[in-house]
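Please, structure for the following, as tokens.
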Amino acid sequence: MTEMAAKGFSATQIIAAMPGVIAASEASGESLALTADTVSSALNIWALEAGEAGRVADILATSANVSAAGITDLGYVLKYAGAPASALGISLEELAAAAGLVIDAGIDGSSAGTSLRASLLALNNPAKAQAKIMKELGFSFQDGEGNAKGLAEMIRDMTSATEHMSEADKVATLGKLVGTEAVSGFLALMKAGPDAINANTKALENSAGASQEAADKMMGGIGGAWEEMMGAFESAAILIGDVLVPYVTSFAKKIGELVDKFNNASPAFQDLVVKGTAIAGALLLIGGPLLMLVGAIPSIIAGITSVVTVFGAAKLAIAGLATGIGPLSAALTFLSGPIGLTIAAIAGITVGVIALVRHLKQDAIPEVDRFGKGVSDATKEALGGFFELSDGASQAIADMSINSSRITGEMATDLIGKYSEMNKQILSAMNERHAAQEASMASFFANSSVLTDEQEAAILQKQQNSHDLQVMAQEAKETRIAEIMNAAAEANRRLTQSEQDEINSIQKSMNENAVKYLSQSEVEQKIIMERLKETAGDLSAKQAAEVAKNSAVQREKAVTEAEAQYDQTIAEIIRMRDETGAITEEQAAQMIAEATRARDGSVKQAELMHQEVVERAKAQAGEHIDNVNWETGEVLSKWEVFKNGVAAKWREIVKATGLKIGEMVIGVKKKFEEIRDGVLEKMVEVKEKIETGWKTAEAFLKGINLLQIGKDVVQGLIDGISGKFKDVKAKVSELANLLPDVVKNLLGIHSPIEKSSPKTKKRAAKLAVLLKTMKPSEKIQAKQVSFA
């Protein structure tokens, strides 16, 4: 998240973007820092809201699924090709789709990004020779409305325009159009075809929710929960940073205001402060010894006064001396007191602050001084003009390189002229030195008879031959530079990296020869050569800053011209619509829309070109990259670098705090994992015991037919119940059989005829009443009686 903060996102924006960033990180397995950097780049390039981070995350996740392009690869693609693509109206989805196809062809993300960038820039703003080729092919980078075509449409049209060519001719033609370094990526897109670009673009456009879905799979369980908690801690760290940064900034601003007040004071006041603090500082240094002397003065005076008592005539004179010294003693005593020491301390601090202010006002990149101490004025004068030419030539090379300029005949002539003038000065110095050495040697031989005339002539000839070879080698340097520049001018192309390196190497050799032949002594040569090494980085950075400054001026000029042209066009359209009636309302609206597109396109192109220049300038600046305001090209003061350094350190502190919190969280997470592992281990033991008990029970019951046992139990129950029912039935039958006999005995019936007699009937009625009132035991007793 610190990466997003460094790119200008506020804490609120970062929090809004974090769900998408976290989802993309979890889905890809890449670090949160790399993912945040990539997502924030996309948001900035396409001017998207922080809440759109989820959409970007979905695109990144889906791109990894449909191609070999990971977040690292797409980060490079956005870095190099994002700004041009956005300026030309190409969507993030289409750029990512095309990048994925290029990377699928075996090209790494960095090369894919530079290839796409070079292709877009070259085809959008072709040089004269390239425009001619495009016209011959019938290919246009713009559509009918003047807008840049999409990548798929561009590839379709280029494929159609070159389908009649052999592969070799196709490669050669594309090399001329987009540059040799971009050919591989462009061919990869042509081989994949527009349908593949459209298909991948469509997949990315419909990728909503892809990152979260992938993240859910990747981050399920405890691991995902802890990752979210770590992200929350980092969010807290950034929030703390946002709270404290204004206070740090306010402090730095107050210091700057104090410095500005001193700088804006009158020269007289500044001079007074400097001199006053210098005097106070001097008094502070000598105050100690001087005060020791002052302390001894009263004792000296007292001694003198004692002597004067004897010599009365001298007493008044000595007293007068004492009176004169008194004020001096008082003054020095005042300086030695608290007030004096306070004044001295303030003065000393003021001196230090003024010195610090003057130091901080200096440029962070020092002025290039190739001579230093120990170099004579004659050598400085002789080499001064040469280095002025050399610096101009190297600045021109830097401009061509950083601006990716196509070399024109005028540019080549101008640069060749600079190197030619440099070479003339070197050759002139070489010839002068050779002539002096030759005259010195001839004079020596004239006064010497050690060698024969033939030997002396042979030595002089060797010396001449050596000189001639050196001259030829020096002239060859100029010739080679002319060959490189003329070849580039004839093809109206950019200098290749190898050609730039060769020219820089030749120029370095020329500088060294100039020092060698234009210096007054070998000691001076060594001093200057060492200074050349020490100041090379400073010079290169200053040249890069100068290029960026010129680019900023050109950008503002282009924007101003575009706005002026727009205002003029709109005014003319309104005049034709409202005054002359030459156009209708609808036509006027269409023309205004076209003028707006033209202006916006010019402004975007100007900004795009400036960004490209700045990126290359930064690369050349090397270690001084933080010492330049790359938006304006101005070299920063040491104070400005100091302020920026404080801000950078604060961001590091915030990041380090987040890391420490992360380490703490990891420690806690580890402990919880140990607890989890312990629980899981015990659960495994319980599971094993259950399985063992089950197997034992299973083995015991294996030979027993529980179904049959159940059947037998039920059948036994049925049989028992049936038996009981039979016994009850038999008893009931038996009782029924006994009742007639009981009744007969009770009624006194002994024969059939007695059954219907009145007496019998009367007995029967009594018996019925009796039976109703009898208890079961009485009935049994009655039965026993009847049987008796």
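The beta strands are 628-629, 634-635. The CA atoms of residues 18 and 492 lie 48 Å apart.
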